[in-house]
Amino acid sequence: MLVPAARDLRTALAAFADAVITDGRCPTTASARAREDAEYTLCVMTGTGDPRAAVARADVWLADKGLADGGLDMAPAEIDEIELLDRAVPDDPGAVAPAA
Q1: Could you give the CA distance from residue 93 to residue 96 in angstroms, rounded to a whole number?
Q2: Which long-range contacts (CB under 8 A, 24 or more apart) does 85-91 make?
Q3: Rounded-to-integer distance, Cα 36 and Cα 2, Å
Q4: Residues 38, 96: contact at Cβ < 8 Å?
Q5: Which long-range contacts (CB under 8 A, 24 or more apart) does 7-12 make?
Q6: What is the pLDDT of residues 4-38, one digit of tens each?
């Protein structure tokens, strides 16, 4: 499996995060479609079928772990522990969410 460039992974992760936040704050047909597109792109780039697994795999690759074989160095149970999609987002656009 080819591993995408770090820049492309970061762009896909940012697009996914933006789509999740936008769809969560003000859900519309367009925001739902944008979220689906971002999920699909991230899943294709990481070779996964689930957005949570895609985020986990991208994080592992960006941390320079598992790049040699393109594999995921996490057990499926560990992926469930990732709370990126469940993290609360402040209503104040100027506020910054605390680091994990």
Answers
A1: 8
A2: 85/20, 85/51, 85/52, 85/55, 89/21, 89/24, 89/25
A3: 23
A4: no
A5: 8/45, 9/45, 9/46, 9/58, 9/61, 9/62, 10/62, 12/38, 12/41, 12/42, 12/45, 12/58
A6: 888 899 999 999 999 999 999 999 999 999 999 99
* Per-residue pLDDT reduced to its tens digit, 30-82: 999 999 999 999 999 999 999 999 999 999 888 865 444 444 444 444 444 44
**pTM, to two decimals:** 0.63
At 24, which amino acid appears? G
Phi and psi (nearest 5°) for 57?
Answer: -65, -45
Q: State CA 86 to chain mean position distance.
A: 12
Among the listed residues 56, 45, 33, the one whose alpha carbon sits nearest the alpha carbon of residue 9:
45
